[in-house]
Amino acid sequence: LEDKVLAGQRVLLTAGPTYEPIDTVRGITNISSGKMGYALARACRDAGAEVTLVSGPTGMAAPAGVRRVDVQSARDMQDAVLAEAARCDVFVAVAAVADYRVTNRSEHKLKKGDAPPVLELTENPDILATIASLPAAPFCVGFAAESRNLLEYADAKRRRKQVPLLVANLAQQAMGADDNEVVLLDDTGNHPLPAMPKRDVARAIVHHLAALLSKRAAP
Ligand code: C5P
Questions:
Q1: What ipTM goes with this model?
Q2: Ligand-binding site membership of 99 (annotated)
Q3: Angstrom distance (rounded) from CA 65 to CA 69
Q4: Which residues are catalytic?
Q5: What's the pTM value of the predicted model, to 2 decimals?
Q6: Inter-residue contact 4 to 47 (CB < 8 Å)
Q7: How many Å apart are CA 11 and CA 89, to the nearest integer?
Q8: 128 is in an annotated binding site
Q9: How far is the CA of 217 from the centre of ligand 1 (A)?
Q10: How many angstroms separate the first and last alpha carbons of the chain?
Q11: Whose CA, among 94, 108, 184, 210, lies 20 to 30 Å from 146?
Q12: Ligand 1 center from residue 23 Cα (angstroms)
């Protein structure tokens, strides 16, 4: 980006899936390539921000100039985010966090001949909602991937999690793809963006975010 619209901002992002172990070799995860989160981390860096990326397992290389913290489970991700939250101005939650974790995980590999295991699941913390409700919360940006009723669900999610900016996309279109088509939801309404490469979507989000931040600084 020619203009350093996020100069002086410290941006914390989550990206990728989380992995919740069942035993030593198996687990529950979400479909997430990490492409959108990594593209946003790069766009924030290019806009002059100091960037920390808390990443689930993706197999993607850490972008140059971005500090990456690797995590596996949702709780690891929340711990890493909470450790950084006080030192950031903006938090962008792009990760596809597993909603449940296994509470009766096996310390050894489960053997196929045994009775099929019964998994006990418990709900994972909502990292975005946790950060958004901190007394000194950073400016929070959420993502919503839905398979239908996109704007209705996304708007409800923005209100429930109390985030000023939410990026909505159709899950079947966004997952793993190189392009994305999103709608930005904020206090002023819905702002649809055209379908374009994730790099360009990320840049557009950064510009929208920077405009909201400057409006907030000088209302
Ligand atoms: O509720 P849902 O998972 O659809 O919300 C999506 C948004 O919330 C994303 O920004 C995602 O990163 C964030 N989230 C989170 N922790 C969770 C679940 C979702 O930070 N446990």
A1: 0.97
A2: yes
A3: 13
A4: 30
A5: 0.96
A6: yes
A7: 6
A8: yes
A9: 27
A10: 25
A11: 210
A12: 25
